[in-house]
Amino acid sequence: MEKFRSFYESHPRFHVAIDCVVFGFKDRELKILIQQRNFEPFQGVWSLMGGFVREDEDIDEAARRVCNELTGLKDVYMRQVGTYGKVDRDPGARVVSIAYCVLIDIDRYNAQLNMMNNSYWENITTLPDMFFDHKDMIRDALKLLQRKVSREPVGFNLLPSLFTLTQLQTLHEAILGESIDKRNFRKRVGEMNFIEKTDLVDKTSSRRGAYLYRFNNSEYQRNPEFKL
Amino acid sequence: MEKFRSFYESHPRFHVAIDCVVFGFKDRELKILIQQRNFEPFQGVWSLMGGFVREDEDIDEAARRVCNELTGLKDVYMRQVGTYGKVDRDPGARVVSIAYCVLIDIDRYNAQLNMMNNSYWENITTLPDMFFDHKDMIRDALKLLQRKVSREPVGFNLLPSLFTLTQLQTLHEAILGESIDKRNFRKRVGEMNFIEKTDLVDKTSSRRGAYLYRFNNSEYQRNPEFKL
DNA sequence: TTTCAAAAGTGTATCATTTACACTTATTTT
DNA sequence: AAAATAAGTGTAAATGATACACTTTTGAAA
Question: For the whole model, what pTM was predicted?
Fold first, then answer.
């Protein structure tokens, strides 16, 4: 391939970045992790958590690495949202950025990282102005999440491994931005036998207590049909 | 920003390419435009039609330019599918490639371009082995198209501006890979008043002749609800 | 210890949507 | 005149989606 080097070298090269739209769920609200940069360039600007792709990394590997650096978590659900490449989207240099939608259980997130990264969990309904096209990335990531949450078991990534049906429902409501009928919702849950009732009870959110459920992925794989 | 140049320069840069998954529809078959390269590198390998992003171009502009160079057409429907960035996906150099799904009316395509580009219309069901991840791009572009065709008026981009309902139905069948009940299909068409019957008749495909319809986009915009 | 507050849990009837299904019509060719 | 070919048309049954309100359980407060 050596002899065709000029074929490639006649074309320009760009920085390629990863931006993570990290979703979490707490207090009935869908949140995302944003950062107010305390370093140059763009100090003080609100932005998504990101990083650059390295020479020796697949872009998905880079996304996993960046996400791990920012959240401390491994084996996290992430999906590519899209790629953003306006010429002037980053005034410091030509940067093409690939956005990823990341879903984490907010309780597994080490809050100390917020100090280190100067980052915050902000409700998606009350985001500040943000760096260039980062609002577009968030919008598109949310659309992706909305499209998936009713048809694939992705919401469980935002919950603890044991959760109540009320938590699951309020999660769906927060993602879809609309309220859901409780009895209809539970009827649909009941049709999916991979959402398993345990005999454990959570009493933190009510006096009566609510049964805890878990998502059984291997059972789901045997008959992967999901509708909520 | 000058003083932060090193912030960027400490990170690597990559070639960024566009690959177009160009769909066409003819003889009841969904086809895509592929090219057997008659130039180095990778001479003889089947691949999608592509090109590199330039310094002064947004990626969407680059996609439009590349698509225009390859099809001769302007103002075509195109949507980003995803970005493919495995380290070794192109052995000649590190190239990150953004795939676009492109829908054209195959009758507007100048067949002479096939000579110039060494390109062909191949049925999606009978594709040859292809360059690295180009099959993945095609699979993902087809998924995108399948997801959209029933809920948004995108199929019309693959048809002439006047079309019969049988053409529209066989197009949907080709995209979805399953047969559709004729009466149910036409019932749904009848519910969308932006699919307008003309008094023109096409007699090329049957003795009786079939009424020609057209898609009225401004009527659609007044009440954008689509279900087929 | 009784009362109150707060969330959990439970079923049915109606409505809307989707599916299954087969013959007639119009025209050209033989 | 008959045959061949694709266009065009409606209804009934089944399935899925929606609307809707009261009882239960428990801890905290009176």
Answer: 0.96
